Amino acid sequence: MDRFLNNHAPKRLVLIFLLMLALSAAAAYFAAGKCADAIVAQQIEAELSAVGGGKFTGAPEESAVTEGEKRLEKYSISRELQPTVMNSYRTVKNTVFYVVFGLMSTASLIWLALSMREVMSIFKKLETLSNDCTKAAYDTKAAITLCGEDLGTVRKACESAEKLVECMRNTSAELRGEQEFLRNFLTDLSHQIKTSLAVVRLNTDMLCELDDLPAESRDRFSDEIQLNLDGMENLVIEAIKLAKLQTDTVEYRMEPYSVADVFELAVKRISPLLRRHNIKIQADLPADISLRCDKGWLCEAVENIIKNSADHSECTEITAGLTKNPIMTTLAISDNGKGIPQEDIPKLFERFSSKSQDTSMYSSGLGMSIAQKIVRAHNGEIFVYSEPGRGTRFEFVFLTAGEL
Prior knowledge:
The chain has helices spanning about 1-5, 10-50, 60-70, 90-140, 155-210, 215-245, 260-275, 295-310, 365-375, and strands at about 255-260, 280-285, 290-295, 315-325, 330-335, 380-385, 390-400. With about 400 residues, it is of the alpha+beta class. Mean pLDDT is about 80; it is low at about 355-365. The strands form 2 sheets. Strands 2-4-5-7-6 form a 5-stranded mixed sheet, covered by helices on one side. It is built from 9 helices and 7 strands, in the order ααααααβαββαββαββ. A hairpin with a 5-residue loop joins strand 6 (about 380-385) and strand 7 (about 390-400).
């Protein structure tokens, strides 16, 4: 009953049924009149034929009908007589009307029953779809029941709802992943900052409370404070960069640049660190090999790789090589440091991965993760080849097929 009352389609079907009944009555009335005229006219001819000597059970004969008209002429009876004056006319007309109207009404009623059944069946399937969608809105594990005929509208609606639910599941999974990333990221970041803040606070308290500290100790405490402040500043800057990369809010300005120029810029920016560690750079890169890239961001990725090698590999030399073929461009950066155990290479690009094994891991913060995201945004990947005691090789591989 609710399906009938709450939807317009069943009501329209009833209205159409009533209209069909009215049309059936009009059609039956018209057909009954025509049939009564024809039948009664035949009756008049039959009776005239009988009066004129024709066979009562046979078909009216023209000669007998003419003879009958002559015999009944004084009564003004002929085959031109209007059928409506005959006593049987109304009976014939009513009989034909009821038969025709009954047949048409029965057909209309059957149509209404079948149509109503089909519409209610569709509404039932749509209600099932509606209930499934409501469940899926609160439970991403809920499934959509596929009902209706193949290639039918209801089936297409169910399939579309299923795709929508699948998109919701994927979005929900991505949101959970982002929440987990943010939770871990903030935990790691706060841990790193708290450690540096603890050192700064401790040294500041000692400088303020101990008036008789030697000048050498004061300088050492001041240097430690400055070192930790610099570290926190770099950490915050890198955290902001990683957050922008993670949320895809970086707008890259892709233009053709010489890869040699990008590498040279990265080395220039990090040269103070290289001089402090007495690390030599050996690079003879072809100047004619270019790549569509954002020079600033790609330079950041190269710089982070070199910086991690300089800070953690205990190397004395870093070399670079550059090759290009129709499919890819490869920039290889190698050091002669202590190398990385194979089991630690998969962890190399994790955030703050050094907190697990400081003695063997290169990455000590966010730089390696930032470098990986930048390279992937440039349609590339970073591959790592290393062996303890023999150094490490980082390969920036960029796909260049179809590049303008």
